Amino acid sequence: MLNIVWSFIVVLSIICSICLGNSTGLSSAFIDSAASAVELIITLAGVICLWSGIMRIASKSGLTELFAKIFSPILRPLFPRLDRNGEAFKYITMNLTANLLGLGNTATPLGLKAMAELQKQNGGSDTAGDEMVIFVVMNTASMQLLPTMLGSLRQSYGSNAPFEIIVPVWLSSGCALAVALIIALSGNKFSKRIR
Questions:
Q1: 40-58 residues labelled b (16+ CB within 10 A) or e (exposed)
Q2: In the chain, what is the straight-line distance between the N-terminal and C-terminal CA atoms, in Å?
Q3: Which residue from 65, 61, 51, 134 is spatially nearest to 100, judged by alpha carbons?
Q4: I need a labelling partner for 18 at 20 to 30 A (CA). Which of 38, 101, 119, 155 fits?
Q5: Do 94 and 58 meet the contact criterion of CB atoms below 8 Å apart?
Q6: pTM
């Protein structure tokens, strides 16, 4: 569906540009945006590779088990039916750690593995279980202590102080996560009452 929406926007923009006689602006926008997209990918690739490697080392060295113990008091009430030593809990803590470090692209494969493990525990049902819903909410409205990707983006666009936005990031991501969890947890309780 999103592909259709984006395609419609692009085609509509091209038609409007041609109808308004701004074809030179259109062609220069195509060239400039293609060049800046490649430049952005190269800039972010280093950060993503570095932190993906660090997360891999953390997994192999047993550091993720330490993270699981650290985050256990926070995650235990949210995921009461999960085994603390299970694969799902391990991937959830790794995903949470990557999100705390502001590494959304690194967190994605870990989140997919966590969802696969949660789906196994859900019995292969077509309906998402409570743990799956809570995890998606936590992953989507993630708290970021160190907005690494955002800082590297700001630096690539010439910011002299790329991490000066750290306090607003803490406030906004913390509020977003709190509100999302409150809504998800109250929705879970409401749906259990209906059943």
A1: eeeeeeebbeebbebbeeb
A2: 32
A3: 51
A4: 38
A5: yes
A6: 0.64
